[in-house]
Please model this.
Amino acid sequence: MAPGLIDYSPSVGLPGFDKSLHHNNTQLSKHLGTKKHLDYQPGRTVVESHDSYEHENLRPSFPIVHWDPLIEVPYHDKGLHGDSRFSNLLASATDVFDYNPKIGTEIHGINLAKITDPQKNDLARLIAVRGVVFFRNQTDLDIHEQRALGAYFGKLHKHATTAVPRQAGLEDVHVVHTEASSKDQRAVFSPSFLWHSDVTYELQPPSYTCLKLLTGPPRGGGGDTLWASQYAAYDLLSAPMQKYLEGLSALHSAKMQGDGSRALGRPVRREPIVTKHPLIRTNPVTGWKSLFFNPGFVTAIVGIPMAESNAIISYLNEIISTTQEIHVRFQWQKNDVAFWDNRICNHSASYGFAPHRRHAVRVACHGERPVFDPAGNSQEEELNRRDGLPNVDKDGARQSNYND
Model:
């Protein structure tokens, strides 16, 4: 149980407390006077020592190996077999709640290391609907269980440039690792550029992606992650803009990652590629249309003038990075897990947590090759019909009185 802001020891009503104190105001006042002093310094949190670190085998390494180009692999979405009410998954849950109407759900009472196949199918379906699902304190989900869970949903992706664990045989695990000696990256990237979907330049970018925090800043120490719904980003567009973008494709490039790795003297395990994907895609589980765009990897819109391409990219960057109602922000604790659908979410790390160590491991399975189905639906319009709500008036020229 987490301590309160003021912790009395011994506590009233617990073993070791003399109940006669209730009848002696002098004694009681004296007893309460021994309360724990709060040592609070604004903006400062205790830094954990890692002299003896239990996850040394999962710290980052950059092995010098070379892999062949990826080829298309079969993919069948397990979310298609999930129950629409998620009854198998939620049968073991003690609580479930959404962070906001557009994206983000947290479930308590589930041990991800022990869920059944029907529960996994429900989980995939829920992730496809809600974008990202959070689970707290998953101590039983070690790296082998995490890989097995990820592999249930499809072939695990191996990243061409980023760190893998020191332990051999885990080349399909991506390592996130920052500590006090790491360089501060805030001056290198603009805030909007940090928003991305993972490796969208691949022929089959990942679908279900699982990130577990092994150690990180304490509460209030920073290091949160944010996600943005690309279903909701699509629904923000006017009908004419939706129709226009549905006919366009974008180039997704791995070149910057490859060049950056070589500049640091690190190996590039698979040669960088540039892949064309539709700018709007349809999710096979929900049938909902989503934007398939991210500031990190999209370099150009195909078939239109550069000025027009740049204007679209700038516009979509702004929607993704500044529209608060399509965002969810997660404050991590040790052993927490986030499970998201990389096809329909962008995400962004947040800086400013030095000098704390932040160490996480991620597995992600290849999804289908992105496709646009014109018969797909709008998430917002479908849910509005379900709930009897009117569709949003997207006429920006009408009179308004903003007041919040």
In short: The chain has a mean pLDDT of 91.
